[in-house]
Amino acid sequence: MTIETTIENEMEAIWVVADQINGAINPVTFQLLGQARKLADDPARKVACIIFGDEIGGLTTSLVGAGADIVYKAESSDLKLYQQNIYKDTIVALAKEKQPDMIFLGSTSVGRELAPLVAAALNTGLSAHCIDLCLDEEGILEQKIPAYGGLMTIICPSKRPQMATCAQGVFATPEMDEKRQGITIDVPICNSEFQKIQTLEIVQESLEGLSIETASSVVAGGAGAGDTKGWDLIKEFSDTLGAALGCTRPAVDEGWAELDTMIGQSGKMVSPELYIGVGLSGEQQHMVGIMEAKLMIAINNDEKSPVFEQVDYGVVGDCKEFLPVLINKIKES
Prior knowledge:
Elements: E1 3-4, E2 12-17, E3 20-21, E4 24-25, H1 27-40, E5 46-53, H2 60-66, E6 70-75, H3 84-98, E7 102-106, H4 109-121, E8 126-130, E9 132-135, E10 141-147, E11 150-154, E12 162-166, E13 182-186, E14 217-221, H5 228-241, E15 244-247, H6 249-253, E16 274-278, H7 284-287, E17 295-300, E18 313-316, H8 319-332
């Protein structure tokens, strides 16, 4: 791959703000670059990516390979850790100069904080947790989110840039094209002498159990667990099956499960070979997170539950009665 250092007649359509920690780029960045490349369509319209960090020169090649035509590299020892104000001020200053049509960020801990700050500073709109991004006949970005049992389309017809965040797994990861050519441009960081908020340390929690984002089988529990004993039974079922354990919002609110295991619009997107939903009703906010699952099964004691209309197979029954039998059968096999 050839990385040039100059460019002529650039016409930047879409920006993606890269999400990287300790030299590792979050997969959502590549997924957004792939979708941005599809939306840009016309080769004359450029896809750009802006990345922050310290000693990150080796990361630009993969960003080009995923679809970026231009990589803006904001590199400084001050950026070894995420710094909210520096990121925001640098993006805003560069956007005012280059006038991108769209800016996409991952719906990560950094992206969820940074996106509204940038949007407010640029006096534009922002749609969060989008599950699809496409263009209408006039080239306006249609930002789709789950709402009212279906999908709602949000547009930003007059303000620019059009901004959206998407979670990992919403779009497919593009194949790396090592023959793609792009350019990398060093950009100065906007670093005021006084930063109101500084990141001093990043502590990464150790993952317990399988990752719901990469597991081939996922069990998700909901409010139907009833209590901690019911939840422990769902957990035992997932362990017996060798599956990752996810959840819906009620399970988090009750304290049975951690927020980072929540599946859905404001959680994570999963695409397992097998998904089993236990004691959940099938609300759209959760179901959008399993749209790419290959085989879906639901266990619910209400035969009229909406979840049965959205899965391949359904079991009508009390999970507290059904799961012990199923667990024993699995152990016997």
